[in-house]
Design the sequence.
């Protein structure tokens, strides 16, 4: 039987008992119907993972005893940064989930000229909280022990002047540049627009800031497809695929 993996923000140490957060406890006790004596794996993003055992359970909380620490990490040697326009519905959640599975290091949600999603105040805070849950769930599933950084949304203009990656690409289908002509970098940034793509002005802004144009074949890809294809390509070219 598959041993579930759970993220917690608490400090973990072998031999210590920990009461898990309400959401994690609910998932273990109500969804997975786990009982005392069952094993699980905990990680807190501070390095490696810990074996643990459920030692007691109430209606709302599971208490676990932390066992041995395994320092294993499953991070790509290539640092990848994805700056992507916020899209409608669950498309953006899908991108966050799959990008995390593909080993993304940093995710920057973007407001752009053609963005159809408007967020501010309480709505923005709720959406950020939801996005973070998506990232955590993806790490639990794909066995990553390090959460990718998820930043607050920002404008394309602010992003292109702040990114410090060795290679920086702005994706648009009118480019003829290809990755095979480039030397291996330590870090790569990918800038992708929302539905409708980046505007000509935003593409020019990115290029003026040092971003190279990049196309992913002759077909026009959707906003939720392009970043995942691009991440797969750079991981296969320079990462751990």
Sequence:
């Amino acid at each position: 039987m598959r041993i579930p993996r759970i993220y917690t923000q608490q400090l973990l140490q072998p031999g210590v008992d920990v009461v898990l957060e309400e959401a994690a406890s609910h998932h273990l006790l109500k969804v997975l119907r786990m009982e005392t004596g069952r094993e699980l794996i905990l990680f807190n993003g501070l390095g490696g993972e810990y074996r643990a055992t459920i030692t007691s359970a109430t209606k709302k909380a599971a208490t676990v005893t932390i066992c041995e620490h395994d320092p294993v990490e499953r991070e790509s040697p290539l640092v990848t940064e994805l700056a992507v326009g916020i899209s409608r519905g669950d498309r953006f959640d899908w991108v966050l989930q799959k990008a995390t599975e593909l080993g993304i290091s940093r995710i920057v949600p973007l407001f752009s000229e053609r963005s159809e999603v408007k967020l501010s105040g309480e709505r923005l805070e709720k959406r950020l909280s939801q996005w973070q849950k998506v990232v955590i769930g993806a790490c639990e599933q794909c066995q990553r022990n390090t959460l990718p950084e998820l930043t607050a949304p920002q404008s394309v203009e602010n992003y292109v002047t702040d990114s410090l990656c060795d290679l920086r690409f702005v994706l648009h289908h009118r480019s003829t540049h290809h990755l095979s002509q480039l030397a291996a970098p330590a870090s790569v940034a990918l800038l992708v627009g929302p539905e409708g793509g980046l505007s000509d002005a935003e593409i020019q802004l990115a290029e003026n800031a040092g971003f190279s144009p990049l196309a992913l074949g002759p077909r026009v890809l959707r906003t939720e497809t392009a970043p995942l294809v691009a991440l797969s390509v750079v991981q296969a070219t320079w990462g751990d695929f």
